[in-house]
Amino acid sequence: MGIKSFPPYTPTRRFQTYDDFSDITKTKPEKSLTVPLKKTGGRNNQGRVTVRFRGGGHKRKYRIIDFKRNRLGDVAKVIAIEYDPNRSARIALVEYEDGERRYIIAPHGLQVGMTITQGEDAPLEIGNALPLAKIPEGIDIHNIEFIPGKGGQLVRSAGTAAQILAKEGNYAFVKLPSGEIRKIHLKCYATIGRVSKIYHDEIVLGKAGRSRWLGRRPHVRGICMNPVSHPMGGGEGRSKGHLPQSPTGVPAKGYRTRKKKPSSKFIVKRRYDEV
Fold first, then answer.
1. Which domains can be identified in the chain, with CATH numbers?
2. Is the CB of residue 21 less than 8 Å from the CB of residue 83?
């Protein structure tokens, strides 16, 4: 499990690195747990581009992931570790005693043949899901719920983990990978361990074509565009008199865009605040 490189017989190959996929034990997905995934090209239901520089890419099938872990007390056996084209982390195919199969986000260190469970009485072992009230401070956790019973929404990317710093009243103070400290209700579930594929950040695409395979089109600077396309465009030659901003005119540096939301009161320390 790791990264492989190649001799630099082209300029691209000199720095290019690949995942060796040595941890994959099953190459074809579970048919009952996949659904078709239609490409949008960054467009909404009105056909307008809402996310720029998207399009193309390889065809994918979506794997249905069990983020809720709601079979409390039931034990499942890990039968495969699989690749998921829709996320950076690996996924694990688990089978419960009644024969039901589900996908979960695979934590680092989870192996075929191991067992997982979920519930208040679950042991503190990799892959088990427990409420925050039952997890001690300092242990790596991932797939954390925002709202009890809704399913994990936080810390799901490859190699990430969060830690509980303290507990007070009905809330736990959780430090997220970004550095933000947030209050989360103690009834919310989280999974023990760090998300798999911890070397993901070390992979170098090396050429534009690999970005296109992933559905990412070239990112064009606004200053290179015409005035009709971007507020920073136009001018004779290069111009530096523009305020850095988005195509809709929102300032790009230092301007806080988050609206006044009720959930803001649960943020103890923002990720960009000074220590």
1. 3-201 (2.40.50.140)
2. yes
